[in-house]
């Protein structure tokens, strides 16, 4: 009986993940592709979006600070690479980067934007699922704002599925539960699905740490956690490292 229950739970989690992934692909590949391309460029944007852009720039720099300055010969997975800014910085440090995103439009844009000088670093852009085991194992995995749309149960499962493929460390971001984000999440549910972007799900920092500490299959230890707040952008890191 426990085996059946565990199997059913895993299947339910996989189904929820597949549904959410398809929603995100639709949003980022079609609905918001133009807006996302502009936000991740240096084109003029509104004051609100400027705070988001500044916050993302700070978050990307923070995640990169968790990695060695010299990544020569090391494999890195950029899980949810978007338009490729983090992948480019990691490759400039010498990493062999696999940059994957579910949006063909964003991956195409990343290929057009990213240019690397002659050197040890490289980037292989892929359209696909960041959890695909066929991508292989990596020294480092980084997921910047690509896990923020999942409920706590599904987020926990995603973290473990990615972490088991990281030899040295895995750093990701989540949306920390604050009164403002919780209120926005609640209000957002009142709008019809067609009129809103996929929910950003606020997660308790203490709660996610407690969940991961209880996982015997995590194989990594919890490390640093830092928050970036910039106007309408709020995101928090969590680092997992090899003991």
CATH architecture name: 3-Layer(aba) Sandwich
Count helical runs. Answer: 8
Average predicted local confidence, pLDDT:
91
CATH homology superfamily: Vaccinia Virus protein VP39
Number of strands: 8
Spans of at least 5 consecutive residues with low confidence: 187-195
Protein structure class: alpha/beta
Note down, in words, how this protein is organized.
The protein has helices at residues 2-31, 33-39, 47-65, 85-92, 104-113, 152-163, 179-188, 205-213, and strands at residues 75-79, 96-101, 122-127, 138-143, 166-174, 221-222, 227-230, 233-241. With 243 residues, it is α/β, with parallel strands linked by helices. The chain has a single domain, classed as 3-Layer(aba) Sandwich (Rossmann fold). Strands 1, 2, 3, 4, 5, 6, 7 and 8 form an 8-stranded mixed sheet that branches. Helix 4 (85-92) links the parallel strand 1 and strand 2.
């Amino acid at each position: 009986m426990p085996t059946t229950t565990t199997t059913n739970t895993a299947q339910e989690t996989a189904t929820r993940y597949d549904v959410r992934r398809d929603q995100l692909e639709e949003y980022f590949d079609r609905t918001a592709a133009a807006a996302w391309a502009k936000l991740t460029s240096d084109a003029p944007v509104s004051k609100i979006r400027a705070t988001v852009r500044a916050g993302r720039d700070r978050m990307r720099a923070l995640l990169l600070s968790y990695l060695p300055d010299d990544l020569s010969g090391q494999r890195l997975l950029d899980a949810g690479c978007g338009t490729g800014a983090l992948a480019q910085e990691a490759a400039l440090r010498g990493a062999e980067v696999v940059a994957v995103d579910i949006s063909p439009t964003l991956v195409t844009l990343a290929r057009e934007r990213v240019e690397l000088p002659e050197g040890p670093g490289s980037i292989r852009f892929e359209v696909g699922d960041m959890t695909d085991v066929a991508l292989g194992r990596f020294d480092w995995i980084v997921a910047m704002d690509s896990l923020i749309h999942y409920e706590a149960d599904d987020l926990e499962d995603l973290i473990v599925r990615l972490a088991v493929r990281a030899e040295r460390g895995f750093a990701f971001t989540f949306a920390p539960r604050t009164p403002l984000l919780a209120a926005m999440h609640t209000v957002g549910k009142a709008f019809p699905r067609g009129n809103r972007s996929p929910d950003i799900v606020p997660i308790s920092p203490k709660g996610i740490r407690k969940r991961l500490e209880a996982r015997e299959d995590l194989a990594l230890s919890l490390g640093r956690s830092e928050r970036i707040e910039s106007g309408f952008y709020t995101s928090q890191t969590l680092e997992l490292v090899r003991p």
